[in-house]
Amino acid sequence: MKKVQGNDSFQRINYLHQVSKYMSMKNPALSSYYGNLIVSIAKKNVLKIHPDIKRQMCKKCRCTLIHNVTGKMKIRNKNKLKFVVWTCSICKTERKLPIDKNKDHTLWVDKPEAVVEIIN
């Protein structure tokens, strides 16, 4: 059986993300602290944070964004492109994510050529 490098760090990042999501409803400052821990663990172990986790975090204060709790979500059109715009209610930072159906906006992680090896 092959061991995955940084497996314990990935588990810790996953746990901290869940705790950050839970605490964002009660204490956004504590959620930001857990978000900072996630980023520091990833940097220290030279790991990439999964894009789904990254998209749920504010880029400035690193609080977990939840609709109508810690952030506002709006859909905007600009030059025939659609974007989801998240606005953090703590630091007022905006974040744009493309959502156009006609264009191919799939993440590289989700593409079949990204999978090199499956470890059981």
TrEMBL record:
GO molecular function: metal ion binding
Keywords attached to this entry: Metal-binding, tRNA processing, Zinc
Domain of life: Eukaryota
GO cellular component, one term: nucleolar ribonuclease P complex
UniProt keyword Iron-sulfur present: no
A Pfam family matched in the record: Rpr2
InterPro entries, per database record: Rpr2/Snm1/Rpp21
GO biological process, one term: tRNA processing
Family: Belongs to the eukaryotic/archaeal RNase P protein component 4 family.
Protein name as catalogued: Uncharacterized protein
Native source species: Diatraea saccharalis (sugarcane borer)
